Amino acid sequence: MKLRIFLLMCCTSLLALHPAKAQDAAESGDDMVKKGEFQKAIDFYTTAVKVTPTNALAWYNMGYSHYKLKMYKEALNDYDQAIKLSPYDAEAYYNRGNVKHELGDDKGALADYNKVVEMKPGFGDVYNNRGNLRMILMDSVGALLDYNSAVEIEPDSAKAYLGRGNLKVKLGDTLGALHDYDKSIAVDSTWPELYFQRAEVKYMFRNYTSSILDYNKVLAFDDVADAYEGRGNAKLKLGDAKGAMADYDKAIAISPNDGYAYLHRGEAKILLKNYPEAIQDCNEAIKYVTHDDPIGYIKRGDAKAAMKKYNDAIYDYIKAIEIEPKDALAYYRRGVTEVMMGKNGDACTDLKKALELGYKPAAVDISTNCK
Q1: Which residues are within 8 A (CB) of 40 and not within 5 positions of it... i.e. 6 or more apart?
Q2: Per-residue pLDDT tens over the stretch 36-55
Q3: Helices 56-68 and 19-34 meet at what angle, rounded to 10?
Q4: Cα(217)–Cα(230) distance, rounded to whole angstroms?
């Protein structure tokens, strides 16, 4: 969003009657914006447009102020008025596109961004925002073209490299994403989001130690629940269950409804053989994790199986399979538990199903237990 300094246009009979009032209101609105007092700015700009209702710039600046206060419907009306009065103003279309996106009208936002590209093809920000929007609208090819254009126009734009990196992750090009995150950090080393995204990609590469260093960078800026959770996951992969649990504790303290933080803390507690508390964490995970993800039941079943509560564990694996009938891990865990119960017939059926669904470790258990 961009603010413009109000330039008074003495072109209406109404303005001719009240020039001092309009001028003072506009200048006072500009002053309030500079101070971050956007509601006061809106009050002054409202006075200005009452005096000069055909002044596009007054509507534009009021739209900016409404946007800053997240009053998006009001901002949309302001930019509609500004564009009606000045239909070739590229930045007004750009800002209205941003407002429409906030209101959930992504197709309308895309139309406005397209208009900006037609009128001002060298405006790098619009390509970045249109790339973000196209990624949301599942147009990966268009998004990549936009990010490439944004980087070409503004090679020092950290957000353009970030957007392109995020898209590459989605497309499975994690190495390309890592390169883009490196470039974005080279441009702006003070943006925590860049370190977070790079840490996530390093985790995908199983470079857990290096990912921890990036999570540390994020946490040096601020206490971010996702960064604590991500660092905890990396520590867990490195066998540091106690360190991981400490990070999950911090993540949950910040975001107490994060089901996956409970889930991962439960995993750490299983490794530490603290099964009752692991079950409690899995209970919380089941409460908060989306209903189409069976992992909370699987992990709770693992904790119960470790306590030799095999029937209770089987119940959880059944629940997991009910949620996702093609979850190979759930079949595998149920099969292994059935082996422990001496139910080799049922176990072999489940283990073979797990292998059929792609869980390759099941092959060893099949060779051992299934004649």
Answers
A1: 32
A2: 999 999 999 898 888 888 88
A3: 30
A4: 12
- DSSP sequence for 174-231: HHHHHHHHHHHHHH-TT-HHHHHHHHHHHHHTT-HHHHHHHHHHHHHH---HHHHHHH
Q: Collect all residues with Cβ–Cβ distance below 8 Å to 238 and sequence separation of at least 6.
A: 208, 209
Identify the domain containing residue 337 by its residue range.
Answer: 311-371
78-104 residue pLDDT tens? 999 999 999 999 999 999 999 999 999
Whether the Cβ atoms of residue 113 and residue 136 lie closer than 8 Å to each other: no
Among 90, 116, 149, the domain boundary falls at: 90
Which of 71, 90, 109 is where one domain is finished?
90
Asked whether the predicted pLDDT for residue 290 surpasses 60, the reply is yes
Rg (C-alpha) for the chain, rounded Å, is 28
Question: Which residue has 């197709």 as its token pair?
Answer: 107
Asked whether residue 96 is assigned to any structural domain, the reply reads no
Distance CA(329)–CA(349), nearest Å, equals 14
First to last CA, the chain: 69
Q: How many other C-beta atoms are found inside a 10 Å radius of the C-beta of residue 164?
A: 28
CATH number at residue 41: 1.25.40.10
The per-residue pLDDT of the chain, averaged, comes to 92
Please give the pLDDT value at position 22.
67
